Every structure is written in C-alpha cells, then in structure tokens.
Structure prediction request, 201 residues.
Amino acid sequence: MHISEGVLSPAVLAGGATLSVVGTALGLKKVDYEAIPRVGLLSAAFFVASLVHVPIGPSSVHLLLNGLMGLLLGWAAFPAVLIGLLLQALLFQFGGLTVLGVNTFNVAGPAVLSFYIFRRLFRHGGRLAIVSSFVCGFLTVLLTALFTALSLVFTGEGFLTVAHLVLLSHLPVMIIEGFFTLFVYLFLLKVRPELMAAVYA
Prediction:
C-alpha cells in the first residue's frame, strides 16, 4: 500500500529507508541463480496487482500478493517489492521516491516475517500447511496495514483516524489475499511440488 509523498516525518522516512536497504541487501545475498526468474515473476505480478488501487487519505487500498511473495521468496521479497514500487513511482507517480523505503518495508517486512513464521509448517506439508497458506496471505496484509498505520501515527497523532481507517479498509483485502495464497499454494503442490520442496529444503 502506497503512502504518498510529503506525508511522513524525516525520522520515519529515514528509518524505513534504512530497514529497506538492510532487507534488500540480505535479499540479494540470499537469492541464488535458480530463484531469479521466480523473483522477477512475483515482482511483475506485484507491480500489476497493486496498480489498481483505491485512495484512502494519504494511503491506498489494493492487492499486495506479499503473502505469496513471503511464501515463495523469503528475504528476496525485499528486492522484488522494491523494484515493483520503484517502477510504479517512476512510471505512474504512485507513492514516490522519498517514501520508497517506508513503502518497501511495510510490504516486504511482513512477507519475510510470514516466511519465518510458517516455513516449518510448509516444510512438513499436509493439511496444516494448507490452512497456513490462507493465514499467511491474511496475516501479511494485516501486518502491512498495521505497519502503514504505525508509519502514519509515528509521524503525528493527527493521522490516528486515518491509521484506523487504513486497518479497517484492508479487511476485505486480507480475506481475498488469504484465499488467493491458498489457491496458488494448492496449484503449485499439484503442478510443481518440486518448487515448494526447493524453497523449503
């Protein structure tokens, strides 16, 4: 979800930029040659999915796919999200360059957290992993909305109402992304089980 230019305080911008630089560096370090096409594909999917958005004050509501990125990329979600947001900022003026770090962290951070929360369940497979795929999609959007709300609140208490609105307005997106992540996980188990085995080896 995009926070617009000129909204956040310098401290929040600097903190988000620092965290995104660290996350992107770790993501690039952990990406192996075989994973590059997967990173590119998911970055492109994120770019397209998040183009259709509904403005909500200084932010917006749109699909994220960061649950799926967390499931399939882990730390590589950071460079995937960064590229997608950078292209959107340059080509369509969504978000912006000064808020690129904060927006990247708000989307990619929850993806990485979900990867570590659920990786043991996905490694073992079974019904619990199937349920976890829905929770993964739901939780990443919830955390992204929470991180975005906190970015606004840390900038100033005047954004408290908007922060609440950001959280509430993303509830439908959480449900949609939960089911989407579930369906993609089941599809990959059926047609590319070796991919899931490689990710969680």
User: Anything to note?
Assistant: The radius of gyration is 16 Å. The chain has a mean pLDDT of 90.
